[in-house]
Design goal:
Blueprint (H helix, E strand, L loop, with lengths): L13 E7 L5 E7 L8 E7 L5 E6 L10 E6 L5 E5 L9 E8 L2 E6 L10 E8 L3 E6 L9 E6 L26
Antiparallel strand pairs: 1-2, 2-3, 3-4, 5-6, 6-7, 7-8, 9-10, 10-11
Length: 177
């Protein structure tokens, strides 16, 4: 039987696309709330002493926009992946990564190898950070939204040793070396 979670706070809040942090102590989700930037915003709720999740906090204006941010995924290294139609991108909805810095969050688009001119969302890593799945309604799919596998096949850099023969010369006052 479903139970009411404290993060709901108000029966009129629309909460969706929830994901746990790797340690299970935080719950990230999208919601439309009065304290938001507009559209769906990302929120973080912490695990309470009784095991419930509460005290939902808006992730702030560096992550949230007047558009929609949703489908959060927190990686083992603390990076926050999410979909947005409010940050600059390649199409309608793109995938982004936010990383904490000393100035807050730095948000980056995952680029054209992941994003298309269509909606790209719902990233999930099976082998972080090199492979996983994402959802998209990109051209060539079998339905409206399809699930795609991705794998980073970037070749590892080769180590090249270069040896230089260096001769040191000293200039003297009379102009000779």
């Amino acid at each position: 039987m479903p139970i009411w979670m404290p993060i709901n706070e108000d029966e009129f809040y629309a909460n969706q696309t929830a994901a746990f942090s790797p340690d299970g102590n935080e719950l990230y989700f999208a919601s439309i709330r009065p304290d938001g930037q507009g559209g769906l915003d990302l929120y973080r709720a912490t695990k309470l002493a009784n095991g419930d999740f509460g005290n939902a906090v808006n992730m702030g204006a560096q992550i949230n926009t007047p558009g929609n941010e949703h489908f959060p995924y927190v990686a083992p290294d603390g990076k926050l992946f999410f979909a947005s139609d409010g940050h600059p991108g390649f199409g309608k909805m793109d995938l982004f990564v936010a990383e904490r810095t000393d100035k807050g969050w730095e948000v980056k688009n995952l680029g054209p190898n992941i994003n298309t001119t269509a909606d790209d969302f719902g990233i999930f890593f099976t082998k972080y950070p090199t492979e996983g799945f994402l959802s998209s309604n990109r051209e060539g799919g079998l339905g409206d939204d399809d699930i795609y596998f991705f794998e980073d096949k970037t070749p590892k850099p080769k180590i090249v040793n270069v040896f230089l023969n260096v001769t040191t010369k000293e200039g003297k006052e009379d102009g000779t070396e």
